[in-house]
């Protein structure tokens, strides 16, 4: 966010957009907004983030809180304009306090996940990366790769089964 604010960095904004757009859309849809309307609001919100980046102050708010507040305000504006009752406040993610042990554990888990992903076949790793890291639907993966839908689903299923097996000791309850 600071690169967007200070340098108008388009690549940083693209990463910001990729991270927040699906989360804001989910928040809007959980509060009762339809998918198409949520998409429109997401576009408005992210455009506002770009234009109002100079107003972002990390001392006053985290990036996520700032973006979600813009989204909430836009949602309230639309509800008022349409004469509908205001949507209920939806709980957003609140990051836990920084616990050094938890941070170290998370870093170790991430390393194990990266290693397990590296052990997948290249075909499985590609579709899993597109689906879960790229937030693409199976149809979007089909359009990008030209693979049949059944092949995509099979590769994801087999890859996830292998990941589950390799990471089963990671989370002991």
TrEMBL record:
<keyword id="KW-0805">Transcription regulation</keyword>
<protein>
    <submittedName>
        <fullName>ECF RNA polymerase sigma factor RpoE</fullName>
    </submittedName>
</protein>
<dbReference type="GO" id="GO:0003677">
    <property type="term" value="F:DNA binding"/>
</dbReference>
<dbReference type="InterPro" id="IPR036388">
    <property type="entry name" value="WH-like_DNA-bd_sf"/>
</dbReference>
<dbReference type="InterPro" id="IPR013325">
    <property type="entry name" value="RNA_pol_sigma_r2"/>
</dbReference>
<dbReference type="InterPro" id="IPR013324">
    <property type="entry name" value="RNA_pol_sigma_r3/r4-like"/>
</dbReference>
<dbReference type="InterPro" id="IPR007627">
    <property type="entry name" value="RNA_pol_sigma70_r2"/>
</dbReference>
<feature type="domain" description="RNA polymerase sigma-70 region 4">
    <location>
        <begin position="116"/>
        <end position="165"/>
    </location>
</feature>
<keyword id="KW-0731">Sigma factor</keyword>
<dbReference type="InterPro" id="IPR014284">
    <property type="entry name" value="RNA_pol_sigma-70_dom"/>
</dbReference>
<feature type="domain" description="RNA polymerase sigma-70 region 2">
    <location>
        <begin position="16"/>
        <end position="84"/>
    </location>
</feature>
<dbReference type="GO" id="GO:0006352">
    <property type="term" value="P:DNA-templated transcription initiation"/>
</dbReference>
<dbReference type="GO" id="GO:0016987">
    <property type="term" value="F:sigma factor activity"/>
</dbReference>
<comment type="similarity">
    <text>Belongs to the sigma-70 factor family. ECF subfamily.</text>
</comment>
<keyword id="KW-0238">DNA-binding</keyword>
<dbReference type="InterPro" id="IPR039425">
    <property type="entry name" value="RNA_pol_sigma-70-like"/>
</dbReference>
<keyword id="KW-0804">Transcription</keyword>
<dbReference type="Pfam" id="PF04542">
    <property type="entry name" value="Sigma70_r2"/>
</dbReference>
<dbReference type="InterPro" id="IPR007630">
    <property type="entry name" value="RNA_pol_sigma70_r4"/>
</dbReference>
<dbReference type="Pfam" id="PF04545">
    <property type="entry name" value="Sigma70_r4"/>
</dbReference>
